[in-house]
Each structure stands twice: as structure tokens, then as C-alpha cells.
């Protein structure tokens, strides 16, 4: 189905942060946009706000003055819902309350023509449920923009049980015509992004709770090794702990308490204390004037090493080898089981077992486990862990090797799957389960996580790069270590590994 023509009138109801942004996007794409809010004057104020935003872009040379004038001419504040009669698409972005949204949409059915498409920007309510009391439930879909709507590329096109697939296709094409990256998803709790992203926060919070490392170190690892734009603590400080905790609780409750989504007591404490993050001046970090963020912990070695031996295949960590060579380390190869030997130390990519456990089970003395890096060739930091009682000289050799390759080394306490590997394995597991349940296609899940929350790679493509069998092994070891359902591997992951297939196809 084709996109709505630019001659189609669009209405946006709710002139708050989201509604104003969505109205701007539609007007910039060439539609006449009517903006309505039940607070008198709010729609006009929002249009003034959009004008100021556009003005700043003109000053920066990012927008022509003509384009600003034309966009503004297409935005019209209205004070009565009756003015929306001729609209082809009405998008509601009002308060997140099921009954209020239902009442508004029922009212709209009596005002707009039968061909009008109704859309909700809800992030946590079920489209099926919002549509349930409509006369034409097939005409309601979710059109879930991300904040700020003019900047964020992703739009989730959400279909409820009754939604007409042809309208989903029309909204998909329309969002694309508006310069967005749309994805299709079924109306299930959290849709794609707010569901698949949960482990990003949850695993860091758990690592903190178990004293594996401090916030600064974990954040630095997510950025400098994981390739994420921000770590979980700085990001939740930015989002606001009240908002982030509420989303987690909503997804957790909607999945009947599945402990994959279990909220964190550490975050609840912050909310209870009013430490909501940046907006309150204190979250995991302090935002008081002059406050300095603690630096990430880096372990240093005084030694220098010149040679190492690679035994067998290091998996995705093979990408370290050229980097070692570039830093004048002589690397030799021999057969073996994925180990990197330097001096008396043995390094290996984590398989999800704790170092103490793997050292004992595999008979490896002086074992140092390596965490995942998004790109071992360019990462600036890497996490390691080792068993208590490692020979201090061997430990120094292991750290020296990584240090010499230009990596800052952060030592974590001995915990399963370290930090980045554990997080990415859980993100991929959640993405695989969403795919298994037909929430969205693999391609749309990966695109959603890249465009909606700026992940460096989609979780499914990332799992393929690591190797689905390795990801499964990591999850099985996490599951065995904790004995918790939270870490149960997705059936889809098991199936694909058994079939020798990738997750992304
Ligand atoms: P907001 O509080 O900034 O704006 C809501 C606006 O709707 C207010 O101006 C309010 O006066 C108006 N309003 C409330 N009830 C109304 C009614 N019955 N009729 C007309 N206007 C009414 O809220 P925000 O953040 O813009 O969120 C709006 C919707 O977008 C919610 O459903 C929210 O879940 C969703 N959303 C929010 C995101 C965010 O980051 N803030 C991201 C994605 C979706």
C-alpha cells in the first residue's frame, strides 16, 4: 500500500513533548497538520515552540528560512475536536491512560470519516485493548515515535488483534515518506524496543547489586568495549529513574511477573529517595555544580611482554590477534582449545562460567577471562576476571599483553559472563524470543534496536557475529550459575543452533 498523499490532512491530539514533535515531522513532510490539546492555548504554544526549534536550525544553517516558513504555514492550532472532521489520519499523543484514550477515540469515530486512520502513540498500552470498544477497531493502529520525534528515526507501527494489515502497510509507507525508519510489530507489552532493551538496564543493575564493579567502570565498559553510546547508569540518569523504572514494572507486570523483566531494588531505592537522575540533580551520579564523575577503574601492569601463543580458535576474540601484532607482539599459533597464552597466564573469551569454575573444570591454572568487545580492533577498554589465588606474576603478564595492545583493562570480580558479553547475550536472547513469538521479524527487531536506542549492532546480528552456539553456551552457564528462569535460553536460539542456522535470517 502506498503512503498517504501530502494532500492528506493529519491531526495530532496532545500538544506535549511527543505531540508537538510528531506534528513537526508531519508538517515538514508536507502535510497540513491540525494540532489540538484540551488545555486552552497549549496547541498554539506548542507551535511557537516548534518555530523556535526551526529557527535554531536556520541559524545553524541546517534548514532554509523558506522551509521554516513553509513548515510553519502547514501547522494549525485548533481548539475544537470538530475541526478534525476532514483528516485522513489522527494521531493521539495524550496522557497515557487507557480510559481517557478510549473515550477520545470513540469521540473521534463520530467526527471523522469512516476512511480516517486512527493512531495512538502509546508506549505501554495495548492497541488491542484501546481498540476494543471502537465501532471500527480495524482502523486503529499504534504509531510509536521515540523522543524527540523530529530527531529519532524509529517508528514502531503497532498492529492490535483487529488492526487492518493494509493500514499498517499504509502507515509504514507514510512513516518512510516522512523520513523515518518504520518497523512492523504486533501489540505485545513493550512492543519491540521497550521489551528487547530491558536486559541492557537489568544486567548492569544486577552486576552493581552483586558488587562486580562500580557504576563508572560498568558504564565505561559498555561504551568503550560494548560500543554503546552510554552505559546503563548514565543512560537511566538521563531518562529519569521514575520513567525507566515505571517502564520496567509495566513490562514485568504485563508478562505476569516473568523474572526476565524483574525490576531492580537498587533502582526502586533511587525512585523512593527522589534521586531521579539528571532532572533531580542526583541519580547514580551527582549533577550538583562542580560534581565530578568517578573515573572508571583501570588495572595496570608494570611488566612488558613480547610474545604470546594462540591455541586454536579464540572465537570472536580472534580479532585481537592483528591488534597484538600491530603493537609489535609476536603471535604464534598452534592447535588447541581457544586459549591465548602469555607468560604463565592463560587468557580465554568467557563462555559464561566463572573463572574459578572454568579453571577447575578445564584444569587451567592462572586463567584470565576476557569479556566481549563490539570490535576488538578498536575497543579502548576490556573487562577481565580471574579466580582468586591466581599467581600474581601470571596476572601481571595477562594484563600487560592487553595493555600493550592499547587496551585499558578493568578487573571485575569473578562473575558469570562478565559485563558486555552477559548483556549482549541477554539482549540477543530477548530479541530471539520476540522473533519466536512473532512480535516482529529479525530484520525489524535489529533495525528497531539500532534506530530506536542507537545500539551499535542489532542484537540478532550481533549474536550471529559472536556465534549463536557460543551465545547459547553463555546463557546455559548463566542459567546454571543462578538457577533462575531469567537466564533460560530462547527456544529459537536452541533451534537455530541445532539447525546450524544464523539468528538473523
Ligand atoms: P505530555 O504530558 O508532554 O503531553 C500530553 C499532552 O496531552 C498535554 O499537553 C495534555 O494537555 C494533553 N492532553 C491530555 N489529555 C488530553 C485529552 N483528553 N485531549 C486532548 N489533549 C489532552 O506527554 P508526552 O510525553 O508527550 O506523551 C504523550 C503520549 O506519548 C503518551 O501516550 C506517552 O506514553 C507517549 N510517549 C511518550 C514518550 C516520551 O518519551 N515522553 C515516548 C513515546 C511515547
TrEMBL record:
For this protein, the record's Gene3D superfamilies field holds:
1.10.1040.50, NAD(P)-binding Rossmann-like Domain
Q: Which organism is it from?
A: Pseudomonas kairouanensis
Q: Which gene encodes it?
A: paaC
Q: Known SUPFAM superfamilies for this protein? A: 6-phosphogluconate dehydrogenase C-terminal domain-like, NAD(P)-binding Rossmann-fold domains
Q: What is this protein called?
A: 3-hydroxyacyl-CoA dehydrogenase PaaC
**UniProt-listed PANTHER family:** 3-HYDROXYACYL-COA DEHYDROGENASE FAMILY PROTEIN (PTHR48075), 3-HYDROXYBUTYRYL-COA DEHYDROGENASE (PTHR48075:SF5)
Task: Describe the location of the 3-hydroxyacyl-CoA dehydrogenase NAD binding domain by residue ranges.
Answer: 10-186
| Classification via InterPro entries | 3-OHacyl-CoA_DH_NAD-bd, 3-OHacyl-CoA_DH_PaaH, 3HC_DH_C, 3HCDH_RFF, 6-PGluconate_DH-like_C_sf, NAD(P)-bd_dom_sf
Q: Which residues form the 3-hydroxybutyryl-CoA dehydrogenase reduced Rossmann-fold domain?
A: 347-416
One Pfam assignment: 3HCDH_N
Q: Which residues form the 3-hydroxyacyl-CoA dehydrogenase C-terminal domain?
A: 190-287, 420-501
Q: Can you tell which superkingdom this protein's organism belongs to?
A: Bacteria
- A single MF term (Gene Ontology): NAD+ binding
User: One biological process GO term for this chain?
Assistant: fatty acid beta-oxidation
Q: Which UniProt keywords apply?
A: NAD, Oxidoreductase
